[in-house]
TrEMBL record:
Signal peptide: none annotated. This is VOC domain-containing protein. Transmembrane segments: none annotated. It comes from the Bacteria. InterPro entries: Glyas_Bleomycin-R_OHBP_Dase (IPR029068), Glyas_Fos-R_dOase_dom (IPR004360), VOC_core (IPR037523). It comes from Streptomyces smaragdinus.
Length: 118
């Protein structure tokens, strides 16, 4: 399993202010779905921060997102380990397959992969 990126998620109602603040550090908006906005570095596109008001389909806002190349493998490994699954593995309408798991410190991690287009 390969990690493609790790993104901190900030729960906030101040999306515009966050866009402006992180823009001062060189980050630019690369995605905005209304409830989640992702800012990235133009020179290093996997360097990202997401600002979320809530999560569209999950009961909690995750503390971070980890994109992997095989989300089904990650799900199997974490379930076998006994980790607490907070949100089940599912396909989302915006093109990702994901689940949430709680890490040993209590943080909620969104583990995701982009669905392949056939």
């Amino acid at each position: 399993m390969t990690v493609r990126r790790v993104v901190p998620n900030i729960q906030s109602e101040a999306a515009q202010e966050s866009r402006e603040f992180y823009g001062l550090l060189g980050l630019e908006e690369v995605m905005n779905q209304g409830w989640i906005m992702t800012l990235a570095s133009p020179s290093s596109p996997t360097a990202q921060i997401s600002v979320m008001t809530s999560d569209k389909t999950a009961p909690v806002v995750p503390d971070m997102s980890i994109e992997v190349d095989d989300v089904d493998e990650a799900y199997a490994v974490l379930r076998k380990s006994g980790a607490e699954i907070v949100h089940p593995l599912q396909d989302e309408e915006w093109g990702v397959r994901r689940f949430f798991v709680r890490d040993p410190s209590g943080r909620v991690v969104n583990v995701l992969g982009h669905r392949r287009r056939d």
